[in-house]
């Protein structure tokens, strides 16, 4: 509205005018959103992680509208802050995404294929203890966060990182699911009852990294393996 009335004013003028509070409120909200993304606790579950992803979406819209409404100078009072925030949110989001593979591996534990297995290798599914609910909750939370970044990731500069993260997560899930299906079908490598539990969890995870259709396919394959 201000832009329409003033014919896209520059940020130097607006920042020193009587309507400067409008821009300051938007910038303060962006700053708060970045802090939420940086600090949200995975232990608190999907509600907070979804809120963090929604905050990232909101920042993307706010930055776009700000740049369309105001003639932003790179060295202007708002231009400098906006550039800093764009960099900070990309860094915050990418840092959170970088933890996803570790969270997934802890929720779906594996063991070395042999004593000669290379350190850091994914190994095969470890089916000797029930799933840890706290670890599953953490993994689900980060996957939900990544899932809900889809509408804003490309525009905000972290679309490539998100795509690579999802590719890595899906490769891990695919291998894990095949391992556990084998155990469920043959009884080799672990308790079939535990295999069923872990397959259900993996299906839930893949609903976030791919889609519900893929998750349903995993569940059907799990049911068939258990019945075999």
Number of strands: 2
Strand order in the largest sheet:
1-2
The first-to-last residue Cα distance is: 65 Å
- What is the overall number of helices? 11
Mean pLDDT over all positions: 88
Report on the structure:
The longest helix has 28 residues, at 159-186. The chain folds into two domains: 1-97; 99-228, no CATH class. It has helices at residues 2-6, 11-15, 20-39, 46-69, 77-97, 100-107, 133-147, 153-156, 159-186, 192-209, 212-227; strands at residues 110-111, 124-125. Helix 9 (159-186) runs parallel beside helix 11 (212-227). It has eleven helices and two strands. The relative contact order is 0.11. Strands 1-2 form a two-stranded antiparallel sheet. With 228 residues, it is an all-alpha fold. Mean pLDDT is 88; it is low at 115-121.
Set down the secondary structure blueprint.
Blueprint: H1 2-6, H2 11-15, H3 20-39, H4 46-69, H5 77-97, H6 100-107, E1 110-111, E2 124-125, H7 133-147, H8 153-156, H9 159-186, H10 192-209, H11 212-227
Antiparallel strand pairs: 1-2
Helix pairs in contact: 3-4, 3-5, 4-7, 6-7, 6-9, 7-10, 9-10, 9-11, 10-11
Features:
mainly alpha; two-stranded antiparallel sheet; 2 domains
Summarize this entry quickly.
With 228 residues, this protein is mainly α. The protein has helices at 2-6, 11-15, 20-39, 46-69, 77-97, 100-107, 133-147, 153-156, 159-186, 192-209, 212-227; strands spanning 110-111, 124-125.
């Amino acid at each position: 509205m201000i832009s329409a009335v003033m014919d896209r004013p520059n940020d130097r003028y607006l920042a020193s005018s009587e309507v400067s509070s409008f821009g300051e409120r938007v910038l303060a909200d962006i700053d708060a959103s970045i802090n939420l993304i940086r600090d949200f606790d995975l232990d608190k579950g999907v509600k907070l992680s979804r809120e963090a992803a929604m905050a990232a979406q909101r920042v993307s819209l706010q930055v776009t509208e700000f740049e369309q409404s105001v003639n932003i100078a790179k060295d202007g009072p708002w231009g400098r802050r906006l550039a800093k925030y764009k960099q900070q949110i990309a860094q915050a989001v990418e840092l959170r995404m970088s933890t996803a593979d570790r969270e997934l591996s802890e929720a779906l534990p594996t063991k070395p294929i042999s004593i000669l297995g290379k350190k850091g290798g994914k190994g095969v599914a470890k089916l000797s203890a029930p799933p840890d609910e706290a670890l599953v909750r953490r993994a689900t939370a980060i996957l939900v966060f990544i899932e809900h970044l889809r509408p804003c990731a490309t525009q905000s500069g972290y679309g490539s990182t998100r795509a690579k993260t999802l590719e890595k997560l899906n490769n891990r899930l695919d291998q894990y699911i095949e391992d556990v299906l084998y155990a469920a079908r043959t009884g080799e490598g672990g308790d079939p009852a535990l295999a069923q539990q872990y397959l259900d969890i993996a299906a839930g995870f893949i609903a976030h990294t791919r889609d519900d259709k893929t998750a349903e396919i995993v569940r059907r394959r799990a049911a068939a393996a258990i019945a075999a």
